[in-house]
Design brief:
about 35% helix, 3 domains, 4-stranded mixed sheet, 12-stranded mixed sheet, Formyltetrahydrofolate synthetase, domain 3, about 550 residues, alpha/beta, Domain 2, N(10)-formyltetrahydrofolate synthetase, Rossmann fold
Amino acid sequence: MSEVKSDIQIARAATKKPIMEIGAKLGIPQDSLLPYGHDKAKISADFIRSVQGNKTGKLILVTAVNPTPAGEGKTTTTVGLGDGLNRIGKKAITCIREASLGPNFGVKGGAAGGGYAQVVPMEDMNLHFTGDFHAITTAHNLLSALIDNHIYWGNELGIDTRRVTWRRVLDMNDRALRQVVTSLGGVANGYPREAGFDITVASEVMAILCLATDLKDLQKRLGDIIVAYRRDKSPVYARDLKADGAMAVLLKDAMQPNLVQTLENNPAFVHGGPFANIAHGCNSVIATTTALKLADYVVTEAGFGADLGAEKFFDIKCRKAGLKPAAAVIVATVRAMKMNGGVKKEDLGAENVEAVVRGCANLGRHIENVKQFGVPVVVAMNHFISDTDAEIAAVKAYVAEQGAEAILCKHWAKGSEGIVDLANKIVEIAEGDSAQFAPLYPDEMKLFDKMDTIVKRIYRGLEAVADKGVHDQLAAWEAAGYGNLPVCMAKTQYSFTTDPTLRGAPTGHVVSVREVRLSAGAGFVVAICGEIMTMPGLPRAPSSEKIFLNEDGQIEGLF
């Protein structure tokens, strides 16, 4: 048996085309691409404006079951489906998020796909790429510096230093920075106060970059950020500190989508990277809408399971950007079904049809949930060599009972050749125009009722609960004119509950909303549920321990 190559070995052996050739496939002239080396480029704002009158393509969402240590392969399937659609003669673009350094050096790994369904250059994408995350981090922390500087020089705006809501960010998992005290060391260093750090992908600046339609909209949203409150509880905005202009300047290049290619030399837009468990989990609106003007089909993904990523894709991104998805793919694996059915990771190699059937309840819940949005669903079974015929048949039979179809996909091992059946099915669904997309709740519903609706209809919980302080805060925001905003649920990705150990399809649980944060610039209210952290920590044995440069100066250990 031949040795199975690692993702990075496959990516390194890829025959890449010059990025200008990839752009030419889409009709992008060379002077509309800002190259970063030979294999990646940014697309100019002028070109994006020039294609707005083009016909709009079909939007396909790829989502998944709740993630398990067994692995699901959502990004791999997204990339594979894009290649598969191109293989059957459709003009397709893959749209995914950029990778955060935190999980790359932590436990989750990168975000460029895997096997023979990857976006390249894989190493660059999983490290500094075109510097977008650094720009977001810098713009965010410039605002932090301006807040403390304003207070130091007399606090003309009357900021209550106990009510500064703007935290700092860093694109790294570092639990020691969750709660800190700043400005120690005497008068010269300012006024000591309690503060903290979030990971960059949880920054409101990240969300704004991903939801803004152009540079003008970007600056307006940056100005709308609420950074603190006065003693009378009136808000202080970023524009009050004259921060919005400089922040927009720092984000000018980061705002433009990045063009790269798949292993099969098909175009991919990689732009933005909010996490789906603590943010809205979708690539940028500007990348998705631009791709829709350049292709017949755009395949995009939403983070983690459909209870988080897909719900936010529909209720936040599609609502705000006026997008209407034509179909949704839910990625599942036999291995994940077995884990949801109670099998331990070390026992996944043994056939266990009964456990597969038990675990399919999780998949069934996600199918029902996506259908609630009026979007047709197909299941992509991401194939592993340990899957048996009986286990595969059990998943297909279960999905058929749910009124959908499960299609076996072998893109990890075979690239586009292994996912042609799914590509053909997607075309059949999308061309049938059966989608009747609608968000889960109306804009005018009260903020807490929106949270409660998600808990009951998506998580299948008994209710959402919160203390009086949360209810009072939501009522104050409603009185201030923010009641029409959608909500962004920050919750564990591993379960429909707030307990990450409860797999399957639990019901009747209570979801506690511990804290709420207003992202006035991004245009949503964040509900922090259970014990979720907006600054993750590293595991006992982080992935960084296995990442190094070999004797040839090549990177090893990224995945």
